[in-house]
Amino acid sequence: MIYKGSEKMIEKRKYGLDILRILSMFGIIGLHLFNNGGILQGMNSNSITYYIVLLIYILCYVSVNVFAMLSGFLYIKKQNIQTNKIIYLISVTLFYCLTITGIFYAFNLFNIRESGLLNFIISIFPPLAGRYWYITSYILLFFMIPYINHFVLNISKEKLEKMIIILFILLSILPTIFCLRDFFAINNGYSPFWLMYCYIIGAYVKLYSVQWKNHCWLVLLISNLLSWFLNSLVKFITSCIFGKILLNDIFINYISPLNVISSICLLIIFSSMTLNVKKYRKVIEFFSATSFSVYIIHSHVLVFDYVLKNSFINIVDYNVIIVVLIIILSIFMIYILCSLIDFVRMKIFDLLNVNKLIENNYMKIMKLLSRRDYVRK
After folding, report:
1. Which residues lie across from 166 on neighbouring strands?
2. How many Cα atoms are found within 13 Å in the side-chain-facing hemisphere of 270?
3. What is the mean pLDDT of residues 237-255?
4. What is the DSSP annotation of 185-232?
């Protein structure tokens, strides 16, 4: 049976997905604190605190996949994908790059003026140095959405399932078996093509996966605990045999089969939620809407390399409960702060009529491209 995307009724907003988007950004912030913030590097890998924190780290790692799957879930039934939305995202990104760079150089924070011209250029255009990988990958994904949707909506469920399973084997299981050997240049998930695969999974969940929701909590629990156990086992075995830890991230990465399964479970769970959020509707919508800007702000090269770099390395000496509380509160405060900053940015954009300017220019360009005489020339 081939699924047709026409709908007679507009679906009500699923606030479970908004909450999942917020939690996913919490997880992305957490990943950055664990890695760039120095939490994991500063810990004794034989301590109880390390293994408890490692479990939180694993829970955070599903966030990027979930974000991409959310796009597939939300966009698969949209007939018109407006390019002006991606132009708006680029405008927001450029705004923050210019603003953050301007503040750092105006006040010479961390003696940034001595870092040289190249660092200044990268601060304004981070993709030149491979930074903001998710945004650049998402831009390519966005332009591919109409074609992916057409394919997914006009292929049978059985064929779509086969394709997802085949790609799961090739892109996830095989690299894990062969110790993250990148056979198909997916770069361990740091790739627009991996985001496209996650998008297709999200689309499939939207169309066909309602019958799985009763088992998702159990599968989610098992997959995360199994990832934690296998990672700990690899650490123990390699340290005993080679005297040092090897293959540290073999089960904790974006393309890990257990990570993919956990991401799917979370999407199914939150998309199936029926929530009464009348009192908190505007709050949830606001923080959901700022999630991408939270990523843009705290992941900017200057904030990432100077403000967050090893800023949490000293918390490893505290009691495990204190460590966990510091991590959770820090994630929460970073999200709140970045969201408040984005609120100011929204007001500035409103005053400057940025949305209208983008929309008007977009419409002019589309009219120009649609003219037959222009095409003939």
Report:
1. none
2. 25
3. 82
4. --GGG-SHHHHHHHHHHHHHHHHH-GGGGGGHHHHHHHHHHHHHHHHH
- The rounded distance, in Å, linking the Cα atoms of 77 and 334 is 33
H helical segments located in the chain: 15-35, 48-60, 63-75, 84-106, 117-124, 133-153, 157-168, 174-177, 192-208, 216-242, 257-271, 281-289, 291-298, 301-302, 320-351, 354-370, 372-376
| Cross-strand bridge partners of residue 2 | 156
Structure confidence at residue 22 as a pLDDT band (50, 70, 90): very high
Q: Give the phi and the psi of residue 86 in degrees, each rounded to 5.
A: -75, -30
Confidence of residue 275 (pLDDT cuts 50, 70, 90): confident
- C-alpha distances (whole Å) from 48 to each of 27, 93, 117, 298, 320 are 22, 40, 45, 30, 8
Cα distance between the two ends of the chain? 43
Reported residue count of the chain is 377
